[in-house]
Design brief:
Shape: globular
Distance between the termini: 69 Å
CATH topology of the largest domain: Alkaline Phosphatase, subunit A
Structural class: alpha/beta
CATH superfamily of the largest domain: Alkaline Phosphatase, subunit A
Radius of gyration: 21 Å
Amino acid sequence: MKKENVILLTLDAVRPDRLSCYGYNKIETKGIDEIAKEGVLFKTCICSSCLTPVSHASILSGKNPNKTKVRDPFNSVQTVIISEILKDQGYKTAGFVGIDLIDSKHKFNKGFDYFDEPKEEGSFHTMWFKGKEQKLKVRLGNWWIDKMFHWLKENASDTFFIWGHYFHVHFLAEKSLLYSGKIDPDKLIDHAYYDTKIKYMDEQLLQPLIKILKEFNIWDNTTIIITSDHGETLGTKQPNWKTFYFDYPQHKSMYESDLRVPLIIKNEKLGKKIIDHPVRAIDIVPTLVDLLNIPASEKFDGESLVPLLLQGEKVDTLTAYAEDLYKERGPGAIQAVRIPKYKLIRNLTTGEEEFYNLEKDKSEKNNILNMSDPKTKKIIKEFRKILDRYLEGYTTSVTIGEEEKEKIKRVLRDLGYIT
């Protein structure tokens, strides 16, 4: 019997609440909806970072950033990823990525027979990431869809694994799409054409992909996983030129808008389901390995969701960890730990903390760090230990002025760390 094919699509900066299968009604994402109707839709999935390479390393490995060793734009993957596992099982493997933060020089090409990444001539924009002693030129945009469809058709009779990272929902992509006449400049313009870009992605990638899989009679035998590396904080509908791309739309926080991502898994064994239980992006690979009955020697941080999905077994509360320690791009080096009810956010650069009751405060507007009862104070203390544990072996240099030092002292004094 032929093994199941696998297609993993990571849709950059796509929020679940902008997809019609999640209840959004301003656009219709027909392709994603069709996959969701035949698969499992997870209402709440939390990613490992608001920074693309950090999050992707965790998605592909089932491990947290302290294990992948990808914690900023300059790091490369230092653990086994799913392409290597499946290649060892005889799968033909192909990867297609839209930004070179997750390219071969960062070792995201491990285990792929064919790997397509951005090149100078095909990118629509370049930007620089600065470190303490180095700079990194990053190419944005790589339209790989036609090449992926060609590869798929050529290898449809084999057992294959495809990873496709779609970038053209990300901010700045609308410029390329507008200049090339691919989207209407007068429709769905809010938030840098965010809805337009999602609709275009569905029409160009998801709908044709479904058609090809059905034409080659491999739709039923192909597991499809759809997720995103992070969400997006959209801000005002039409930001002025001074804030456009610098403040909004962006993804530089540990808030739900940036950490909550879609997750849909279509697999014949699983059938159609909607899952309320919160899960994590690091649970994708352990779940996939379990579904495919692959003997994996890797020790994952994530957990297989198969017992929940097939047997309906109760799953323990899953603790989600997230970070963005590359302080140069946002408010500082930030971490978060989250369970369904509570979330603690810590800024290592400023010394500030935020604590939210997500059941009562879904928008994270009311920081209750200093208003908590003894029971929740104990939870906060445990959360801090978790955050500390993920920093073991990692050092980050912080340069701050006297004013910031005094601010940090006040925070630490209020928290009872100093007198």
